[in-house]
Design a protein that fits this description.
The complex is a heterodimer of chains A (about 110) and B (about 110).
Chain A: E1 5-7, E2 10-13, E3 19-24, E4 31-38, E5 42-50, E6 53-56, E7 65-71, E8 74-79, E9 88-95, E10 103-104, E11 108-112
Parallel strand pairs in A: 2-11
Antiparallel strand pairs in A: 1-3, 3-8, 4-5, 4-9, 5-6, 7-8, 9-10, 9-11
Chain B: E1 3-5, E2 9-13, E3 18-25, E4 32-37, E5 44-49, E6 53-57, E7 60-65, E8 70-75, E9 84-90, E10 99-100, E11 104-109
Parallel strand pairs in B: 2-11
Antiparallel strand pairs in B: 1-3, 3-8, 4-5, 4-9, 6-7, 7-8, 9-10, 9-11
Classes of the chains: A mainly beta (about 110), B mainly beta (about 110).
Chain lengths: ~110, ~110
């Protein structure tokens, strides 16, 4: 299996622009997670889907962030408008079940100038 | 609130054994996991303990004591490639997302 696939791997954008991050989970996994990692705040859960349904979005910082999972093989995380403080590495992870280990994608390094 | 505590840094030499502790405080408990992350890489799942006791996977072992709200990751026969950050993570309830600790940076020297 190819593992969790994320795109783009790197994104540099200017403040105010829309950013869309993409994730393809491992086939057969029914849970998908979006995380953000920074030196200051560590690894933070943003949102968690189970069977394509958002279960917990309490970690989404504000309305500028939105996430969708239209089907079992694709999810997006959108930031609109982006701000410099959104600069971080964004990871997508999937799991074969809600109570199993999670498998992380390579991450998207976002820089907002 | 929910929190996990683990040391921020640990140093050791090649061939040694190191133990990384994790204490947690959660409203419920449904398993303790460990993840490894190399600099610039993604977290990698190492182990999962749902019940008390020791789980062994090669050079790595993970231990859990639910009565003490405590677990540890034991790394044996350390190699330079083991230099990485190690995160403990707890699930407070079945079906909820993991809560990650701040991570322990392990530095292995020759």
């Amino acid at each position: 299996d190819a593992g969790v696939i994320q795109s783009p791997r790197h994104e540099v954008t200017e403040m105010g622009q829309e950013v869309t991050l993409r994730c393809k989970p491992i086939s057969g996994h029914n849970s998908l997670f979006w995380y953000r990692q920074t030196m200051m705040r560590g690894l933070e859960l943003l949102i968690y889907f189970n069977n394509n349904v958002p279960i917990d979005d309490s970690g989404m910082p504000e309305d500028r962030f939105s996430a969708k999972m239209p089907n079992a093989s694709f999810s997006t995380l959108k930031i609109q408008p982006s701000e410099p403080r959104d600069s971080a590495v964004y990871f997508c992870a999937s799991s074969p079940g809600r109570d199993f280990g999670q498998y992380f994608g390579p991450g998207t390094r976002l820089t907002v100038t | 609130g929910q929190s996990l505590e683990q040391p921020s840094e640990v140093t050791a030499v090649e061939g040694a054994i190191v133990q990384i502790n994790c204490t947690y405080q959660t409203s419920g408990f449904y398993g303790l996991s460990w993840y490894q992350q190399h600099d610039g890489g993604a977290p990698t799942f190492l182990s999962y303990n749902a019940l008390d006791g020791l789980e062994e996977t090669g050079r790595f072992s993970s231990f859990l004591s639910r009565s003490d709200s405590y677990g540890y990751l034991l790394l044996q026969e350390l190699q330079m490639k083991d230099s990485a950050s190690y995160f403990c993570a707890v699930r407070g309830q079945a079906g909820t997302a993991l809560i990650f600790g701040k991570g322990t940076t392990l530095s292995v020297s020759s």
